[in-house]
Amino acid sequence: MVVVCPQLLLNGACAVDGCEYRHNVQICRPCGAICYSAAFYRAHCASQRHKKRLSGAVGAFFCSICQTNVPSGDGWAVHIRGKKHVGLASQQGIDPNVQPEETTTPIGHVHCNECSLAVPQERWTTHVNSRSHGRKSLVASYEAAFEEAGKNKHGIDVTHENDGLDFGIIDVEDASRGVATVLTVRNTVPTSKVVLVNAKFSSTSPSFSVSYDTSSRTLSYSKSLAITVVFRQHHRGRYDDRLELIFEDTTLRQRFVIIRAVKATVGSRADHEALKPKSPYVPRKRTPRTLETDVVPGVPPSTEKAIPYVGKLPHALIPPRMSTALATGQIGRTINYFRNSILPAQLNSETHARYYKTHLWAEEHKMENDLQMYDIVDTKLARHNQYYYLPVPGLAEKRPSVLVGDIILVQPHGSDTGRWFEGHVHVVRRDEVGLCFHVSFRQRSASDLYTVRFKLNRIPLRRQHQALDAAFHPDRLLFPSQVDVQGARPSKSAIQAYVCNKLIVGNEAQLQAVASIASQRAGAPPFVIFGPPGTGKTITMVESIRQVLRLNPRACILVCAPSNSAADLVVSRLAMLGSSQLFRFYAPFRNKDLVPDAILPFTYRNANGHFSVPPIAIVKRYRVIVSTCVSASFAHGIGMPRGHFTHIFVDEAGQATEPEVMIAIKTMADHETNVVLSGDPKQLGPIIRSAVARDLGLEKSYIERLMARPPYDETAGYGVSVVKLVKNFRSHEAILKFPNERFYRGELQPCAESRVTHAYIGCPILANKNLPVFIHSISGKDDRESSSPSFFNIDEASQVKAYVRMLKDDRRFRTTDSDIGIITPYHAQCLKIRTVLRPFAEGIKVGSVEEFQGQERKVIIISTVRSSREFVEYDLKHTLGFVANPRRFNVAVTRAQALLIVVGDPTVLSLDPLWRSFLNYVHGKGGWKGPPPSWDTSTAVDNTGSYDQCVKSSALADMNEFARRMELLTMNGIASDGAAEDDELDVNIDRPWREVE
């Protein structure tokens, strides 16, 4: 194992030419953090831990009740709410909300300087032998060594006009030519004579070079030597190194070293200036909402009465004991409590309802809490007629998602009562909503200020609870077994001549799916169309519907999809049925302007112009009704009889939760109704905000749960209960190859038209002119702004902009805005990229992976954002965030038809085994731009996911070696501050809100 150079540890730098030991280690002097390289050091300096230390934040507080030290920051708030603290306060008759005191060492304890911790005397030996203490002790020793190496010494003064050697932001063209700066070395001791033995950089990177007049390397008194440092680089990004100047005092015949940090940023100064954080990130302190004890009801919109419902929805409020458990915020403990005390011991048809109702309550609790991040303080209302217009930041981004009929609470500024006015949303515009209050609401002046709270619309959740409460729960629909699957695989020949879409005739899997669905016996178990990316699952489902209608004159079909866009697509492909047979149901509050003109003839609107339903007698005449999964409750709500629909089809079923799909099945199906699901469990599932609900299983869709059961084995059940589509009509084979092998056992066949998939072959933008996929390696800096924990990366945003401009300026390979899609996992990066593209490419869609599922573009550019590489405290989960998710990866890389560009930091991405495999694949094909990989791409990937642990282990090995060497020195240890880790990323800030009806 390579270890840190002993000379480096002893002297701060190494004077041995050709030394094979590791040199690229840096220490943060204020924090004592060990950083594996200058890049790690740079990331650490941007962290909250470092900033807290620089601001003089206290490392810990002393609790007089518990007689113990408590970490500062959020640690104190958590401590005083803890059961132990509250219990001791109660025993002593003291208010638990005591003020923190300065740290002290309680009686019977020993204070550890390195760890900033009071340790019981009986545990002292265990503590000093612990890994944590040993690591922090080594940090102190490292810090001292590097502090010494950075000082001017022995009368030699090394100066530069900047602090260190910072080249600043350099234009790409200038960096390609090379930029130089000069260090001045001067001898300030009259009787001294010193020789510059060598000047070198700690790494082997070619970006920095150094030169000087070798004939003037001897420095007598007052003599100076100019050392020229040149930076040359062809690619954007951040580059840093350490210059080591090795001197020898000829009188003492002793060598010593002085080091200087060197860094440069290649990119657009204008982009950096436009995108830089306006203010540093400070974690937002969320204070619990006070109880709304007096709410004045508002005026609901007329859309609430647009549907003639015959029954009432259950309120389905969260049970108090669940609410109490969820309010603790301790996810692991809450999950265990739910599993042991709330959830049924087994999931079966009898417990299905209770199982999923519990999941819904956990999700509702988190959704309500997440809405607090959008609460507004000190805002104004603009009155126009009966409406009060409220500006809502982020409304255009659906952050928050606000629909007509939602409720927003408003309270005059400074009110110290629990009285709030309920405002019903009547109007939704791009940046504001129109509210209607009770007549008692009075605005004294247009300058009045208000506090605003967003409330969760519980109607979709109540509809799901209503469906789950239904007594209908047959095993053949919820838990089908091999016994339920009867008969042989239907023949394709009987239906082949009647297929409407002739493209299906030559596709064996699609034809088999259509034949199987059309010939299903009544009351069969659900049939699954497993449709990997670009294989035509919606086309297959539409053809199946047409064949069912042809073969069964009595057939009535309900078609559902998780989103309006997916439901609209089905309607557009069934338009040939005519408006007398096809009905598209929209929720009443749906904006008419958002509905495609071609679909309007299949809808119904009432006298007020709101979407509604015709009389029930007319509704029963339609042979096909299409709605979203949640809106499908309208059928039960208006009194449609159970069993009216012979078939229920669910498209994109993998994106809906099981309770959402159950709205149609459990309220409208009977023992004869057939269910058909179309989707891909290998792609993204439904968006779940609650970590508790995700862990308990709400993220697993109905189709995914079914496909894990024996009847849905892709081989044994082929043509009887499931068909997997295998012909991909979207992507170039090189783009498809990796996800095909990783997720679909290599069964997908590239069948798309070459005029589309090969559109960029030979394009100058490619790294390999015959490979339409490449990685652009860039070492940038991820940052956060103000109170938002969402990350952005200016370097990557600037590089994405450059590629968009290159594509649009190329007259041979013509590309329009609609041809390009840009995917990034962080909302803040979406905003930054839109900012730099606005002047010349505003029409390009920039969004999250979720926003691109089901879509395709000729060109897809992915910006992965994360570049954090803090050394010892490295955490793969926090660093990669959403990027380290197999399904998110699968969706992202399968959206491209003809060109896929991934912009990111490979050193960080490669810590995830899936990404490392992909990077190896692309690099092996010659699809690489930017600095080369830092690992051997021909080495087999360890899929156990231990790469981040390997980094940590290597660091500890280096530190242990360092500790052994340091025994030779007499040095006082320097204490680490023991600061807490950065606050955990609130991933829900980047998780989009689903707009369900």
Automatic annotation (TrEMBL):
GO terms for cellular component: cytoplasmic ribonucleoprotein granule. Residues 61-85 form the C2H2-type domain. Residues 507-576, 618-690 form the DNA2/NAM7 helicase helicase domain. Residues 375-454 form the Helicase MOV-10-like beta-barrel domain. It is found in: Cytoplasm, Cytoplasmic ribonucleoprotein granule. Pfam families: AAA_11, AAA_12, MOV-10_beta-barrel, zf-met. InterPro entries: DNA2/NAM7-like_C (IPR041679), DNA2/NAM7_AAA_11 (IPR041677), Ig-like_fold (IPR013783), MOV-10-like_beta-barrel (IPR049080), MOV-10/SDE3_DEXXQ/H-box (IPR026122), P-loop_NTPase (IPR027417), SF1_C_Upf1 (IPR047187), Znf_C2H2_type (IPR013087). Keywords: ATP-binding, Cytoplasm, Helicase, Hydrolase, Nucleotide-binding, RNA-binding, RNA-mediated gene silencing, Signal. This is RNA helicase. The lineage of its organism: Eukaryota, Fungi, Dikarya, Basidiomycota, Agaricomycotina.
